[in-house]
Design a protein that fits this description.
The protein is α/β, with parallel strands linked by helices. Helix content is about 35%, strand content about 20%. The chain is built from five helices and five strands. The radius of gyration is 14 Å and the shape is globular.
Length: about 130
């Protein structure tokens, strides 16, 4: 069996998104099986509107130019890349209920499930990360 990477995304800022999707796509590029569980503010990273304008951390606004100069893909581009590479995206049902979010509010091609859904994926993961 190959490498399996399980990621929990619970924060909703721009830097958080880059951490999550850079690790996910890099892992998928090595043929690892990758699953990400989005919960609480992490749902912003896959929200159809929010993920297009994620906040830069306070005091770090000067990095915006650096991202442009380095030709870093946008978050929507990275998300699409991750999906094309087979990264499994799971949105937390409980958090969606708490935040009154519907599946239609989130990007297409995702799975909605609870912690058990993620744990079922993660139970035999070689690498588990939380951002």
């Amino acid at each position: 069996m190959g490498t399996k990477v399980a990621i929990i995304a619970s924060h909703g800022g721009l830097f958080d998104a880059y951490k999550v999707f850079n690790i996910a796509t890099a892992s998928a590029a090595t043929d690892a099986e990758v699953g990400i569980f989005f919960t609480f503010e992490g749902l912003n990273l896959i929200h159809k509107t929010a993920y297009q304008q994620l906040p830069m951390p306070t005091g770090k606004e000067h990095f915006a130019e650096g991202f442009q100069n380095a030709n870093v893909p946008s978050i929507p581009e990275l998300v699409e890349m991750a999906q094309q590479m087979g990264v499994k995206i799971i949105a937390c049902q409980m958090t969606m209920d708490v935040m009154n979010l519907k599946k239609e509010d989130l990007i297409d091609g995702i799975e909605v499930g609870g912690a058990v859904t993620f744990l079922d994926f993660a139970k035999d993961a070689n690498i588990t990360l939380s951002f």
